């Protein structure tokens, strides 16, 4: 058992009759750790950044993902790492243990022992001791999330990843505190290192990605980046591609890891994607 509290803010920015909305939030186990002012600043930044937005010409360019929008992506990746989905043939990561599935800058970790984190627990929903897991290390798939059932089917030991949606729910394998390991860039340094790209602040429809093929097409909004500098807001853009191809093209990860609930990622950059 434990406490959990959170805050969410939707801010509006207006200029010359144009109105844009930005959102932000935070959650933690301790009320005193909530930074209300920072959440407000983040929401205001996102709203203000979209004023005067334009459309980008169709083409391939670098795409940077803000930590606020990475939650949907990580939720998708964590689902693909579920041994239950793998064994049922509903994950594109089936049969890829020990193989490179992402770029070498990509390491995904699940840490149920992380101090103060929402998903931390010494035991999983089946009473199995939990442990820190490096599921994808430097791009190589090392293990899946297992509960006792999937582990027995695979002939391996459970790695303490069973969870329940409620006390009435049937346990199933999944993540606790799942995150993309921070890199060596600062966020500003990663932006300055980008000649032509977009910093994505909003993403719509990532849940529609095909978990078997990895194909996706989503709507995004954000900030255009030209010669390492912000170059105005962007709305109505479409981002399409393949999830594994996208993760294999990650060429820069910043150090600004931020947890939103039990998922977290720093700002990271994909070298080039189709933006329309």
How would you characterize this protein structure?
With 276 residues, the protein is an alpha+beta fold. Among the domains are: 1-52, no CATH class; 73-180, no CATH class. Helix content is 18%, strand content 36%. The strands form four sheets. It has a six-stranded mixed sheet, covered by helices on one side. A five-stranded mixed beta barrel has the order 3-10-11-12-16. The longest helix is centred in the N-terminal third of the chain and has 14 residues, at 36-49. The chain is globular, with a radius of gyration of 19 Å. The model has no long low-confidence stretch (mean pLDDT 95).
Short summary of the structure?
With 276 residues, this protein is an alpha+beta fold. It has helices spanning 36-49, 70-80, 83-87, 148-154, 187-192, 243-248, and strands at 5-15, 18-28, 59-65, 108-110, 133-137, 140-141, 162-163, 172-173, 178-180, 196-204, 215-226, 229-242, 250-253, 258-260, 263-265, 268-275.
Helix content: 10-25%
Overall 3D form: globular
N-to-C span: 47 Å
Strand arrangement, major sheet: 6-5-4-9-15-14
User: What is the tally of beta strands?
Assistant: 16
- Rg, please? 19 Å
Summed up, the helix count is 6
Secondary-structure class: alpha+beta
Q: Can you write the helix and strand succession as a string? A: EEHEHHEEEHEEEHEEEHEEEE
Largest sheet report: 6 strands, mixed
Average pLDDT score: 95
> How much strand content do the residues show?
35-45%
- List low-confidence stretches: none
């Amino acid at each position: 058992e434990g406490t959990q509290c959170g805050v969410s803010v939707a801010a509006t920015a207006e200029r010359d009759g144009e109105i844009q909305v930005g959102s932000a939030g935070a959650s933690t186990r301790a009320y005193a750790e909530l930074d209300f002012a920072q959440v407000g600043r983040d929401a205001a930044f996102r709203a203000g950044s979209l004023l005067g937005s334009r459309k980008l010409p169709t083409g391939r360019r670098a795409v940077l993902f803000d930590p606020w929008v990475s939650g949907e992506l990580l939720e998708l990746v964590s689902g693909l790492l579920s041994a239950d989905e793998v064994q049922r043939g509903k994950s594109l990561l089936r049969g890829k243990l020990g193989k490179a599935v992402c770029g070498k800058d990509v390491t995904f970790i699940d840490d149920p022992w992380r101090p103060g984190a929402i998903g931390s627990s010494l035991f999983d929903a089946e009473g199995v001791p939990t442990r820190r897991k490096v599921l994808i290390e430097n791009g190589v798939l090392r293990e899946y999330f297992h509960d006792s059932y999937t582990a027995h089917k695979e002939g391996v030991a459970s790695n303490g990843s069973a969870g329940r949606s409620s006390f009435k729910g049937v346990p199933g394998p999944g993540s606790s505190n799942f995150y993309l390991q921070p890199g060596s860039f600062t966020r500003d340094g990663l932006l300055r290192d980008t000649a032509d790209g977009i910093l994505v602040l909003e993403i719509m429809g990532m849940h529609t990605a095909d978990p078997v093929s990895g194909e996706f097409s989503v709507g995004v909004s954000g900030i255009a980046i030209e010669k390492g500098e912000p170059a105005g807001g962007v709305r109505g853009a479409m981002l399409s591609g393949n999830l594994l191809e996208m993760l294999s093209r990650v060429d820069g990860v910043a150090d600004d890891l931020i947890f939103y609930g039990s998922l977290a990622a720093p700002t990271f950059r994909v070298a080039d994607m189709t933006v329309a």
